[in-house]
Amino acid sequence: MKRIAKSDKEIYVFDNYSEISAYIISLWRQFSQNAIARHDYFAVALSGGKTPKKLYQVLAKHNDLPWNRTHIFQVDERFVKRDHPDSNYKLLNDNLFIPLNFPEKNIHGIKTDVPIDKSLMLYRYAINNFFHIADPAEPLTETAPPQFDLIMLGIGDDGHTASLFPFQLDTFDTPKNVVAASGSHVMHERVTLTLPVIRQAKNIIFLVVGDNKAEIVKRVIDNDPKLPASFVKPVDGKLIFVLDQAAASSL
Ligand code: 6PG
Question: Is the Cβ atom of 163 under 6 angstroms away from ligand 1?
Fold first, then answer.
């Protein structure tokens, strides 16, 4: 593993995906222990896409992690049925929840079997309720962004992250915790955590592999203001890039 020094982010480069998963699992262990010692739960939001699948499969072999106290939320979701190949819930379910026999009550998924407005409302409500950040009389009025203990993100070829796409400012600058993302560039409608929520996290990990991502990774690390992923600046948490050699080859 090689560490690249930057003042505002930690960047680690690995030779292969098994080293990447072993490193992320060591962080997961450390972050979950700290979070549970602090508030008795470990709240994580996980992304979809292709890159994290193998990581979720390896995580699912770690029965020794504190799964009963771990609460898993989704970073974002494509608005398709949960058995659709593009469903992020399906990715988590097939590779993590089912193999681990993960406690149902600790899964906080984005529903896609209801109209999208209802799904947004239910997910906002689930988050506000879990983190106690809403006025009980107005459960859908966020009083502050929730603080996840860990948010796992990827970076798309166009520099998007979560479902925060270039030029969709309503998904960036909003008091809401969850919004819909749509537009001609998005194949399915999406539901996503917003930038204020992502920035509030205690720990954020960008997991990016492959030489097709090398240029975009460099631009994000150099804070290119045209790319949504560059806006991911933690309020007071940690920002960690975990890359393979190929994704780091332009750095
Ligand atoms: C999703 C995520 C998206 C993803 C990037 C990278 O697809 O569900 O919203 O932000 O993390 O597009 O995707 P890959 O890992 O497939 O390259």
Answer: yes
Phi, psi of 150, rounded to the nearest 5 degrees: -150, 135
Query: Whose CA is closest to atom 3 on ligand 1?
Result: 162
Residues 6+ apart with CB under 8 A from 1: 12, 13, 14, 15, 19, 23
Residue-wise pLDDT tens digits, 53-80: 999 999 999 999 999 999 999 999 999 9
- For residue 184, what pLDDT is reported? 62
Query: Cα of 51 to ligand 1 centre, how many Å?
Result: 7
Grade residue 5 by pLDDT with cuts at 50, 70 and 90: confident
Q: Are strands 42-46 and 70-74 parallel, antiparallel or unpaired?
A: parallel
159 lines ligand 1 (CB under 6 A): no
Tell me the CA distances in angstroms from 134 to 39, 73, 176, 197, one per residue in order. 18, 18, 11, 14
Mutate to test the pocket of ligand 1, among 20, 24, 47 (most ligand atoms within 8 A of CB): 47
Predicted pLDDT at 166: 83
Q: Where are the alpha helices (DSSP H) in 151-210?
A: 195-200
> Which pLDDT tens digit goes with each residue over 30-56?
999 999 999 999 999 999 999 999 999
Query: Residue 50: CB within 6 Å of ligand 1?
Result: yes
The reply to whether ligand 1 has any atom less than 6 angstroms from the CB of 47 is: yes
Residue nearest to atom 7 of ligand 1 (CA): 49
Q: 176 pLDDT band (50/70/90 cuts)?
A: very high
CB atoms within 10 A of CB 92: 23
CB 107 within 8 A of CB 68: no
